[in-house]
């Protein structure tokens, strides 16, 4: 068994195609086939079965895929430690990011500082929702991901808090109040986010027995702002993504704090901090230094 064979196995499992894997790795299709057959012969197990033009993992293949990813992750960490000891600070890091709060508000600032300090480390970003980030961490698809804390499944590192606020059309009488209690939204037309914060908004309404009339569901923050600006309903959103220069363009949108105050903690997570690569550790240290 070689790490090259494991690399090929993991990529075939992801792409479900020998041809696509060969093209991605710039090798022949026969080399891909030989690598899989060599693993199957050594392990005396069938790893894949053909389904029409695609390859599907067998039950054994699914079980061993996770272990293959673990081995590749440990190997990458080892190589980066070697580079770090030689003073090269080389390597790569795969980061998972979610939503406007992490992808627009946190990540660019962290990446700018990180790449200035470690220009030889390659950075790859995958964007998904909260659940996808967790899955990618568990499957070792990414090295580190932004998550909402707490999350007992991972080793986590706190960064910042993001509070929730109400967005109100200027024509609503509530817009004149100093703050908004969730119960104040009872029976009013409401625009529900379907992005990562939906679970938290629903929990806020449920905890305070608030039952607004949910008429619209949107995943994009700018669409929600436009709908509020058009006087079509109120909403509750995470404040971090609400840049002042954006709201200035929507004079009919009034932002008000919630009472009681409700916020969520955002941080970074890894599957196991004892197996962190130097690049991953450096990224977390840079991020924490910016948001202490």
Q: What is the radius of gyration computed over CA atoms, rounded to a whole number of angstroms?
A: 23 Å
State the CATH topology of the largest domain: D-Maltodextrin-Binding Protein, domain 2
Subunit organisation of the chains:
single chain
Helix fraction, binned, reads 40-55%
Strand content: 25-35%
Mean pLDDT: 90
The number of distinct helices, counting runs of at least 4 residues, comes to: 10
Show unreliable segments: none
The structure class reads: alpha/beta
Spatial gap, N to C terminus = 45 Å
Order of helices and strands: HHHEEHEHEHEEEHEHEHEEH
Domain count, please report it.
3
Instruction: Estimate the global geometry from the Cα principal axes.
Output: elongated
Quick one: how many beta strands? 11
- Per CATH, the superfamily of the largest domain is Periplasmic binding protein-like II
List keywords for this structure.
D-Maltodextrin-Binding Protein, domain 2; 10 helices; 3 domains; 25% strand; alpha/beta; 11 strands; Arc Repressor Mutant, subunit A; 292 residues; LysR_HTH_N; single chain; 7-stranded mixed β-sheet
What does this structure look like?
- Keywords: DNA-binding, Transcription, Transcription regulation.
- InterPro entries: HTH-type_LysR_regulators, LysR_HTH_N, LysR_subst-bd, WH-like_DNA-bd_sf, WH_DNA-bd_sf.
- It holds the Pfam family HTH_1.
- Belongs to the LysR transcriptional regulatory family.
- This protein is an alpha/beta fold.
- Helices cover about 45% and strands about 25% of the residues.
- The chain has 3 domains: about 5-70, Arc Repressor Mutant, subunit A; about 80-160 and about 265-290, 3-Layer(aba) Sandwich (D-Maltodextrin-Binding Protein, domain 2), CATH 3.40.190.10; about 160-260, D-Maltodextrin-Binding Protein, domain 2.
- It is built from 10 helices and 11 strands.
- Strand 1 and strand 2 form a beta hairpin.
- The mean pLDDT is about 90.
């Amino acid at each position: 068994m070689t790490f090259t064979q494991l690399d090929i196995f993991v990529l075939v499992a992801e792409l479900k195609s020998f041809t696509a894997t060969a093209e991605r790795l710039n090798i022949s299709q026969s080399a891909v086939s030989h690598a899989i057959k060599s693993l199957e012969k050594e392990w005396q197990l069938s790893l894949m079965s053909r389904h029409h033009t695609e390859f599907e993992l067998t039950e054994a293949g699914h079980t061993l895929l996770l272990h293959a990813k673990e081995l590749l992750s440990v190997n990458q960490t080892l190589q980066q430690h070697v580079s770090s000891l030689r003073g090269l600070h080389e390597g790569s890091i795969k980061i998972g990011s979610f939503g406007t709060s992490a992808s627009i508000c946190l990540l660019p600032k962290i990446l700018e500082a990180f790449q200035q300090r470690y220009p030889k480390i390659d950075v790859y970003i995958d964007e998904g929702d909260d659940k996808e980030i967790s899955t990618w961490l568990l499957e070792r698809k990414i090295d580190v991901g932004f998550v909402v804390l707490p999350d007992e499944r991972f080793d986590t590192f706190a960064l910042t808090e993001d509070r929730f606020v109400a967005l109100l059309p200027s024509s609503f009488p509530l817009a004149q109040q100093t703050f908004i209690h969730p119960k104040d939204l009872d029976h009013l037309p409401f625009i529900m986010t379907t992005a990562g914060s939906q679970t938290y908004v629903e929990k806020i309404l449920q905890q305070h027995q608030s039952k607004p009339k949910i008429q619209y569901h949107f995943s994009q923050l700018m669409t929600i702002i436009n709908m509020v600006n058009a006087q079509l309903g109120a909403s509750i959103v995470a404040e971090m993504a609400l840049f002042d220069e954006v709201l200035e363009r929507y004079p009919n949108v009034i932002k008000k704090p919630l009472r009681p105050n409700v916020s969520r903690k955002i941080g970074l997570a890894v599957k196991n901090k004892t197996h962190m690569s130097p690049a991953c550790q450096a990224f977390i240290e840079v991020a924490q230094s910016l948001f202490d």
